[in-house]
Predict the 3D structure of the following.
Amino acid sequence: MPNSLRSRQRSNSLGRGARGAGRGTTKAFPVSLSHVCRPLPRRHKNLVIVGAQWGDEGKGKIIDVLSEDADILVRYQGGHNAGHTVIVDGHEFIFHLIPSGLLHKHKVGLIGNGVVVDPEALINEMDRLQARGVDVRRAVKLSDQAHLIFPYHKRLDIVEEAGRTGRIGTTGRGIGPCYVDKIARSGIRVADLCDAEEFPIKLRACVEEKNRLLKALYDEPPFSYDELLARYSAYGKRLAPHVVNGVRFLRDAMAQGKRILFEGAQGTLLDIDHGTYPYVTSSNATAGGACTGAGVAPTAIDRVIGVVKAYTTRVGEGPFPTEFPPVLMERIRAKGKEFGATTGRPRRCGWFDALIARHAVWVNGCDAVAVTKLDVLDEMDTVQICVGYRDGKKTIHDFPSNMRLLSRCQPVYESLPGWRTPTGDAAAFDELPPAAQRYLKRLEALLEVPICLISTGSKREQAFKIGRW
Ligand code: IMP
């Protein structure tokens, strides 16, 4: 800071503030400070998109549609456990770490500080994107505060999961163990990787500690420090041109009036605090995670949109009150292609659960919801919505935190007539069959927020907005 500015600031804040206070006025801060701390212009619209169920709600498609209006796309939590599918011109692309709006031209994607990054996975994904014609060097930015996943995290993920009595069903990508190191303050960040003196010191300490742990608790073979140092140093060189100070990057973008879309991975029910703990992932998948995971203030966020499927799915273990019986499960799984984009695991499927979706609307402060995969229900004679849980003689209307209680709850259903008509060509709400319109209006009423977008197929054009979002 130049001296002239520093002395002006000092005399302003002490001199005038003190004089003002002496005269009994409440104006403690000088007006001229505004040139030092300029407010951001508020004409832009920054949007958070979050999953409002157990992940796999079809966020990739919604982000792809809504990112048309954004300049910067940000991932703020999770890692390559996520798989966001986008289909453009019949070609499928699955994003794991890179924000999924980048297939649009001239967008820039930031992988925020809240993401845990496997550099090998990131480099592979960048190479695939480059092959699709995206100028990756320009378009992909990586926060220097993001934590790195190492092979020992993956090994720990796998052996810990195998040793658990109540399995979580993790993706085995090292996500949880990497977040454990972050919270234990022993993780290695992108900034460390870019520091040729510091990185070997930190890595040696981590490898030695993890080798001791793996041997003592699981009798697992050790990792070679030399091999990891060589491999990760090469990753560091490759990633260096993408590394930015994420806070400064977003601050500058907002100052230029650029619009930011924060892209949540997984879903609210997988959130470490607000999900079906312990059957969750290890990050804050909810809208609040966008602030901590990208380095922006809550005041920078203008809109939150929750994404729900027209029914419910989940991968991995844990209670799922509206889960279908086997025959219906197979039918919907086949029609909805309900297999994990990251692991290929079959997803568990069930009826729409309004309790969990409303819980998500509240936790995220959703302004609206987008409904995906309506077409998957096209052939049903009746459709059901869970509007409460029955526990013995008691009916519960709020999503419970006690998983033992949730496991024994029976869903209370409202039945509505099915529409038995294809919806894939609808381009507006009025073009949907009346029974489908009734179903959606009922969801709106139960969730207490408007529906802003409906998707009726996997293609980009099989989606339409309702109102101005
Ligand atoms: P982890 O994130 O690999 O630790 O897995 C924890 C739980 O989150 C498991 O039940 C996973 O199946 C689930 N999970 C993680 N990522 C996703 C996702 O992108 N979609 C759906 N489920 C996920």
Summary: Residues 55-56, 81-83, 168-171, 173, 175-176, 265-266, 270, 279, 281-282, 315-316 surround inosinic acid (CB under 6 Å). Residues 1-35 have pLDDT under 50 and may be disordered. The chain has two domains: 3-8+44-144+245-465, 147-242. The longest helix spans residues 198-218.
